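User: For my dataset I need records formatted as: sequence, then structure tokens, nothing else. Please produce one.
Assistant:
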Amino acid sequence: MRRSGKRPPLRLLRGVLLTIMVIVIGGIGGLYFIGRTSRPTPAQPQEQKTNVALGEFLRGEGFEHEVTREGRKIFVIRAERITSDEEDHFRLEDVELVFDRDNGDQYTIHSDWSTYDRNTDAAVLKGAVRLLGPNHLTLITEGLELKRQGSLVVSSAPVRFGIAGEYEGEAERISIDLRRDEFSLSGAVKLQRLAQFNDSLSLECEKLSFERRRQLIRAEGSVDIKGGGENRLRARRVSILLSDNEKTPRFLRARWGLRGRFEQSTAVDSQG
């Protein structure tokens, strides 16, 4: 008796087995990949931060720079320490500036720290600022600014000053033209002879200018001059010509709103 079904060919059976194996291996591989991707990503090491400020690129010990114009030395700036935070713009500590005049006179400025722009030769000096000049000139303040390519010094704080070793004074502001040796003071200006000298002399005004080359003082605004005894002179404007050593008034001219008298050896010319 003959069988009604046929046996499946061997080739077909092998194909079915191969397909099942591929499916099983693919499933195992997929599970392995999912397990790998689900692991936490290890943290990347962070870069260590430095204590250098943003933009700062130079620190050093010692700084010196000479400013010249048309072959002529204008001033020299020195410092014990330097921090440069921008190109040609420096912060300096323990600073000294030296200005040599054609006549041999010298001005020096010392400060705790300053900023200095080498492109414009401008400087801002802060801290204990001290200016020294010819004939025992001294000036003390908390702030000075160097402008006009090193030719002008302007205070940013009240000042105290000394002249010729015999006088001391104070003012709210001062500007110094170093090329012309001219001083301009303003804001409650006071000037007086030191107590250890016999002849007392004092001056108060709102504005005072001193042309050093001419030895000439000009005082303006509520000028009040006091000398020994009953000597006292008030006026709106007074001009005083000093001796060569800047210690003794040789000539005095008072104008407008004149009151009082001044009977010392100084020649007095009163107008108005």
